[in-house]
Amino acid sequence: MEFAKLPPGDVRALIREGTITRHTSGMCDGYAQANLAVLPSEYAYDFLLFAQRNPKSCPILEVTDRGSRFLKTIAPGADIARDIPKYRIYKNGVPGGEYTDVSEFWRDDFVSFLIGCSFSFESELIAGDIPVRHIEEGRNVPMYITGIECESAGIFHGKMVVSMRPIPPELVVRAVNITASMPRVHGAPVHIGDPGVIGIKDVGKPDFGDAVTIKPEEVPVFWACGVTPQSAIMSARPSIAITHAPGHMLITDVKNLLLKY
Amino acid sequence: MEFAKLPPGDVRALIREGTITRHTSGMCDGYAQANLAVLPSEYAYDFLLFAQRNPKSCPILEVTDRGSRFLKTIAPGADIARDIPKYRIYKNGVPGGEYTDVSEFWRDDFVSFLIGCSFSFESELIAGDIPVRHIEEGRNVPMYITGIECESAGIFHGKMVVSMRPIPPELVVRAVNITASMPRVHGAPVHIGDPGVIGIKDVGKPDFGDAVTIKPEEVPVFWACGVTPQSAIMSARPSIAITHAPGHMLITDVKNLLLKY
Q1: CB-closest option in A52, A188, A261 to B48
Q2: Is the ipTM of this complex over 0.90?
Q3: What is the pLDDT of residues A64-76, one digit of tens each?
Q4: Parallel, antiparallel, or unpaired for β A219-224 and A191-192?
């Protein structure tokens, strides 16, 4: 895959200069990628509490200090406003546009939340000889809004969003074990089998991302998804919020392996 | 041990009516106990962020809604202001007194943080045939202020406080594995061996709790401790804070075993 062997800092530099604007799936083999949610500080406590109460959907990797565009731990030197290939700006909960650079919109009261991403456990699944269908088919992972209500916190509430991967029945236990060992990137599945049990009407019609082939014998397995915070932002309607565009992540300097410890 | 076989709700009722005022070590076998920190909401974001940045010291089990004295998840029905045997009140970071009931001091802007406690992993260590010296000797666990600086967050900063248990060398790996499986109650040790490496001058003189016997062949093993937030409160000097008195915990309805998942 393109950029798979480059170190994270090099790829972030290519993103910053505008050379890379596509989704980051497959880039920087072995390094964790992160979901982004940026909010004015007046919403920061409610959002951090929402993440604390919903750790499977919103495993926090780092929170910046108020106003800072820079990370101290997971990607020192990265510029949050420029080093993601594509951003979304939400105004009053409504997605208002996509940008490759949001530095002109930055405010001194912004706080950034970096949240673990299932790309990290996908590379572990593949290393464990478990097929990951959307990667095989060159698509984005299928994501669904479930009937599972998140624990609310202040203004933030909403339904859990999940990602789905079809797994051969003899590999389901292995997939549970591999992902359970990585709680900082969503951890073990939230559901195995019948999509209707968690309120998904048609597994062939995802709410985000692309549909993928489910072979007759395969079991759909569902993991909590880092798009859940965007669903909560749409429900809570803060005056402004900036997120990554789905699939267009921050590539961190943290090795996936170290997210286990 | 006294009250070991009673269910948590019964023991909390005895605490609430004033029949139990002593430390809770050994009570309600198999159920998790929790550290408490109560702060006015103006400090809640900084404190929650401090906990997020220092998860080994401050693994959050639950945060109440503003003003509420009641828990929804870990001990439904418990009254935070009355169901702990002994409280401490800090004013401007200075411990100001101990109380068996703090309901007369309660304010509508208080937020309560319940934090995992090493009592949970001690019962697992004992189940794994690992001796826990302070329990054998009927003492409080020895705790030390280390030279390890916590990650600061807003006004909160300070040194990490650790608890120490001397472990026979052939059982150290088992003790690491058992506690690593319980990250919500401090998880794996932060240090094994020479106390000087983490800034402890005299392991015979703990800063909190009691000294315990270390046999010649035994290795001192150090875990992050839930007294760290009290150290941070002493450094940050919020106008008021209420905590449990060390060893006098909230007994929850959550089984220790379920803290692994």
Answers
A1: A52
A2: no
A3: 999 999 999 999 9
A4: antiparallel
